[in-house]
Amino acid sequence: MAGGKLTPRQKMINLMYLVFIAMLALNMSKEVLSAFGILNNKIIESNSVADARNQSSFEQLAQKAQDQPLQFGDKKAKVEKIRALCKDFSTYLESMKTEFTKEFKRDEDGNLPFESMDKGDMVDQKWFNGDKPSKDGQLFLDKMANFKSQIKQIGGSSIADSEMKKIEKRFATEPVKSKNAGTTLGWLDYNFKGFPLIATVTKLSQLQADIKTTESDIIAGMFQTDLVAAASLTAYQPIVVPDKTAFFQGESVTGKIILGKFDPNLVAKSVIVNGASVPAEAGQAKFSFGAGNVGEHEITGSFNFDEGGKVVSLPIKGNYVVVPQPKSANISADKMNVVYRGLPNPMTISFAGISDDKVTASAPGLSRASGNGKYNLSPGSGTEVTVSVTAKLPDNKTVSDKKTFRIKNIPAPAGAIGGTTGVTKGAKSRLEVSTISAKLEDFLYDLDFQVTQFTFKVPGQPAIVVNGDKVDGRCRAALARVTRGDQVTVSDIKTKVTGAQIVVPTAAPVIYEIQ
């Protein structure tokens, strides 16, 4: 057909042939139209499944927002707005499909007559005005553009940049370079102008599918952000957890180092520590209670969260050790560790950090007294006594220690007349009625001495031995011969301590000068 000089008849035949080929191209086969219809039904069915899946995902997010409002509340609010936007756009597309197919009768299965939907005149008349979009066509393009921008505005930083780029590409309406037309066409022109109606309906169903996919990806992304943050090592910090909070010198320090994370958006429903409720704060809970007695104690309780409509409890288990609070400095003079024979020398015996019921002390003459760690030591014969102490540690090991004390007799007291020791002065009449006593001044213990015997000596007179603590008739007879300035000596004063079996040295003499 393309070579040589043609006759007018041949030219007419060739022209008719070209018209015939064009007519064949314009009349799409029934198989292709049916294929579009079947594809449209498949997309509609898939969209219904996507709706159910998106609803289920949103309900999970809503439950998370109810359980942890700080962590998921804002995300739930954003997803609600985006779902409303998706529903509005999808409803608009459905209205277009309904309008374009209202003149076609569906069969008993609800299917459109796909093979009869080979013309696109209704779409062209509604969406195009010559080579440009009509008012309704521009409305369709504006809804596409508004859908993208609204999602970006609502989602903000909650939607990853990579995800937002996919959404923008999915609903792009930029002009398209057409190889067949040999020029650049508007997006609406390239995708819808001159197409069979069933193809247009299928494309609108696919746009609805894109909307469902967008909604699903955004909901998944809201969860994925928290999953990535939770899995990131930067969210964790090493936490040292010793097996106990107090160790003794020489003991091995044992424990473990775990990875934990502090989430400021995670707030427990309730926190129980040692049976008492404590306030739940963002990512933590602070507690305060009395330390208790000396020794090891446990900390127990639970962190309680709402999850999926149920309460999930995370157990709390720890321990701590109470040691005695220092009330005085430990100051000792090693050369003066002395106990006195025959006296109940009070002692305090303890092991730091170990309760009194796990401490055992022993020594000759050692006995328990009233109060934790209180003892009395009454040494007998010998010059030294050793106190041995054994204690059981929290790990059931035992430790021991000992200390040696010197044993001394109590020092000799000083004789006294009228409560005065050494040399005293007074009238003869006062001496005649005085009681002879004994005193041990500047001594650690307050002892009550009772005089049992003394020797009474007046100058120029024989010494008189008196049993008891008072001057008798013999003493008064001797005093009758004394003159002013004479000194009466009371010596060899023997005593005993009230309430104790102690050998007391003879008291120092006392002198009374007659005035």
Automatic annotation (TrEMBL):
<protein>
    <submittedName>
        <fullName>Gliding motility protein GldM</fullName>
    </submittedName>
</protein>
<dbReference type="Pfam" id="PF12081">
    <property type="entry name" value="GldM_1st"/>
</dbReference>
<dbReference type="Pfam" id="PF21602">
    <property type="entry name" value="GldM_3rd"/>
</dbReference>
<dbReference type="InterPro" id="IPR019859">
    <property type="entry name" value="Motility-assoc_prot_GldM"/>
</dbReference>
<dbReference type="InterPro" id="IPR022720">
    <property type="entry name" value="Motility-assoc_prot_GldM_N"/>
</dbReference>
<feature type="domain" description="Gliding motility-associated protein GldM N-terminal">
    <location>
        <begin position="31"/>
        <end position="223"/>
    </location>
</feature>
<dbReference type="InterPro" id="IPR048405">
    <property type="entry name" value="GldM_Ig-like-1"/>
</dbReference>
<feature type="domain" description="Gliding motility-associated protein GldM second immunoglobulin-like">
    <location>
        <begin position="328"/>
        <end position="408"/>
    </location>
</feature>
<dbReference type="InterPro" id="IPR048406">
    <property type="entry name" value="GldM_Ig-like-2"/>
</dbReference>
<feature type="domain" description="Gliding motility-associated protein GldM C-terminal">
    <location>
        <begin position="411"/>
        <end position="515"/>
    </location>
</feature>
<dbReference type="Pfam" id="PF21601">
    <property type="entry name" value="GldM_2nd"/>
</dbReference>
<feature type="domain" description="Gliding motility-associated protein GldM first immunoglobulin-like">
    <location>
        <begin position="229"/>
        <end position="324"/>
    </location>
</feature>
<dbReference type="Pfam" id="PF12080">
    <property type="entry name" value="GldM_4th"/>
</dbReference>
<dbReference type="InterPro" id="IPR022719">
    <property type="entry name" value="Motility-assoc_prot_GldM_C"/>
</dbReference>
